[in-house]
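Review form for a predicted model. The reviewer records the input and the model, then writes brief findings.
Reviewer: anonymous (R2)
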Amino acid sequence: MNLTKAFSYLIVALVLLITLGGCGQKATGVFVESEVSFQTEDSAIAGTLAVPDGKGPFPAVIIVTGSGPFDRNGDEDAARVEALREAGHPVLAANSTYRDIAEGLSREGMVTLRYDKRGTGNNTGERSDFPEPSLRDLRAAVAFLRDNPSVDPERIALLGHGLGGLWALMVTAEDTGIAALGVMATPARVYSEVIIEQYKGSRRLAGGNDTGGDAAIEQQRALYAQLRSGELDPATLPEPTRSQLEWLKAIMDMAGADYARQIKRPALILQGEKDLFTVIPEEAQLLKEAFIEGGNEEVELVVFPDLDHLFRPTPDEPSMQLYYEDRGPIPTEVVDTIVDWMKATLR
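Model under review:
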């Protein structure tokens, strides 16, 4: 063999090794879950960390819970369920949306972290959907993963549902170290207008029309004006009105689109077409447009027909009653969409 041919064989071998090395380790489908706790500025937050089998570090996804008394898995808080049953009230069906998504991701070689909200699951304190401490807890979750030896700190993504999508947008906008972002059923416009659209939608479902609720809508807009001007001070009112108005004041002028315009990393938007709680498809499309307006060229929008806010099958008209009915696990097409996108983006 002459030197030229030997040298060419060596080059081919080196290229092959580099190519194979860049492919990474193939996922085995096996992962180990463990109970973890991470510290925020004022409390400890409990969650579930799932680490794939094999040699890391791995890409990672933090799943951010939506509004309401839901735990890390996406189910209604166990203590609340027990109290409702004792009082003879109906209970929302278990759905475990976040658990199903986390398991799908970890089977494909990604670390996942999902955690209970304050006052929910294993966490103490008052339940809260306020911007703070929700943002504080999410920032602590990101810091926790960055310090974990099984995680590649340059390949951490956030996946937020509903209001959790807004928190994910806000943290991604401020933290350029977040590699990618996914949002599920997250509005684009200011929440004050989203709340009004939700009211209109609920009236239509109840058999009313848009004009019949005009007076109530004007009252709602007047309430916003009073909160903005300070004419109405929630602190002067009794509970639960006080907390409700304090939350409304804190969130009513926040808009997902404002933060989307600041993000120039890969973004995935998922939406169920029969979502009772978000205007569809306008909100999802507006959110996509906001990303693009900010100069983001890596945005994908997927709208699932016949799925609702929890991404559960809704073949006929959507209704609140369906949320009390067991409709099985989240469809595999939703999990597969998330998994495939995260694998391609965090590779």
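Findings: Strands lie at 31-39, 44-52, 58-64, 111-115, 151-161, 180-184, 267-272, 299-304.
Further findings: The chain has two domains: 26-189+255-345, 195-245.
Recommendation: see findings above.
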